[in-house]
Amino acid sequence: MTKEHTLAPQHAPKLKEKVAEKWATSIRGQLFPGEEIWALAKTNQVRPTLEGLAITNARVMAFSSIDVATAGPRVSVEADNIARFEIVKKMTGKHLHVTDLGQQTLQFGAINDADVDFVCHYVHHLASAGFPPGMREILITRSMATTESARARDVGRSEVEIIGAPLKEVAWRTIDEHTTPDELPWFVINAGSAGFLAAFEDRLIVAKVGGMAGFMTGSMGGGRVTSFPYSDITNIEYNSGMMTGVLEVLTPSYQGTSNHDYWRSAGAGPNKAGASPFTLSNCLPLPKAQHRIALPRLTDLQKKIIDYKRPTINVQHTPSSITTAPPIGLAGELQNLANLHHQGILDEAEFAAAKQATISRHST
Q: Does the pLDDT of residue 315 top 50, yes or no?
């Protein structure tokens, strides 16, 4: 049996091999450290929706292939929590029920008749083998690390200045996806369904994510996230009417536009309303009252952008190329005078006078 489990996952008679391979690929990202898939089979249940069953060396789990890669299994029980299991005959077929140590019965859906023996074989072996030794300690350590990381993340988030309503999780998740692990924004302007602006030490992010914000950008179910390095920003403008306005980040790629009024383009689809501030990646619709609150931070931001773009001048001092020749002493000077005398540059009287002067100078 142990040798069998080191091989590729086994698939039940009624499960196609290609489907099994696809499921295994989706599940692997949700496995515990050291967890291996033993067997895969089809199951069927409406609520919660189940279509696949996996037995590993650690647990039994049922899942929907639509979201197992991101959300994990919808029903699961670990090996050391299995009290008993049984196949229950119902009008809809033969269902796998597993009762845990707390006497709670978990339903894993209807199993095809041809697959019942296959499934029972692996569930029985799992219950007999128990949870893998050492895996629990690894999971506890990982859970503690995850908890500490989440606590540190929440503390960091609480220190970020938010101008507007508190950010929803989808906004924080967007920030996390576009930053380094320990990076948090300097401040955030939250315009609600219109999106948000997050200011960092070297760039701005304008994001329009979430249900309504994504819809307004023409990205239903998605959104738009644009990063603006300070080195590219030429100006930040606010154009307003009586009650509301638009905050606009200008760069060489994003020039100022003449239409900042959403209602002028309300009759067109989001992707056709090219001048709508709800659609443009560099625009953030913002009420005047909220802009007044954000103005001190925006002023600081303008200064930061100017400082960031100011060239740094490094002045380097090079040592002088003129060097002073080391002293040559009395003997050296007398030798130089003798050379001049031999060359005829100094006559006898000049040589004698220069020699006497040199000796006198070194004698003092």
A: yes
